[in-house]
Amino acid sequence: MSTLEFWEILVPTTRPDGRPIKARYHKVWDKMINGIAGGCTVLKPTKGKWVAPDGAIFEERMIPVRIGCTKEQIDIIIDLTLEYYDQKAVIAYRISNEVILRHRSSHGKERIDQKIGAANKAVERTDRLDCTDRLGKRDEGISQG
Hints:
The protein is an alpha+beta fold. It has helices at residues 23-37, 71-84, 109-139; strands spanning 5-12, 41-42, 46-51, 57-69, 92-96.
């Protein structure tokens, strides 16, 4: 079984001829990615610059898209993106190979309540220790700022 990883891929905002890509065209790509990986997070566009193997310099706005998927799925997404957007190159990079994806379920509620209770107790202990520490420093004549 392949491991879930967190990836980012850069998607163009313009076609090779310079015409802008419309939002509805991007939404079709989004749906294809959702079908492959189960979802994606589209970030705000950013500017990028890169040099092609022939030495041509490209400066363009790109849309970073984050995807939780396997290595095999990102390979499919890269190929799909190359073709769909008619690109010379597409870059994707792994952000993390440690991904926790947890779905909420009713049978896990008791376990979650226990963990929240334990976390709240830890916070209360920390608050008490912090308060005691502050009182001790005040009693020693150290002012708190």
